[in-house]
Design brief:
By secondary structure, the chain is of the alpha/beta class. The protein is 21% helix and 20% strand.
């Protein structure tokens, strides 16, 4: 988020943060921001977040922008949020 020129060049307009950590809100002032509060643990239920994150990602794509999805990994992660235009969202 600190490489503003690279994000601008990539046409990033929307950001999905999938983590449960304090975030510096000033980093996101020029972007639409969606937070998915998750822990990097085996039994985390990420499915419950798919509809909201998919809709947010779709909004960014439909508006002609790019979407950056990032997360924090403590050890390893199986986290996967759809980042392409879905043909069948479920």
């Amino acid at each position: 988020m600190r490489r503003k020129e690279a994000l601008k060049k990539a046409n990033i307009t929307h950001v999905v943060s999938a983590l449960r950590l304090p975030l510096d809100k000033d980093l996101f002032v020029n972007y639409k921001h969606h937070i998915v509060e998750l822990d990097d643990v085996e039994d985390e239920n990420i499915i419950e977040h798919f509809a909201g994150s998919n809709a947010f990602i779709q909004e960014g794509l439909d508006g002609g922008g790019g979407v950056l999805v990032h997360w924090w990994v403590k050890y390893f992660s199986w986290l996967s949020l759809r980042t392409r235009r879905p043909t069948n969202p479920f």
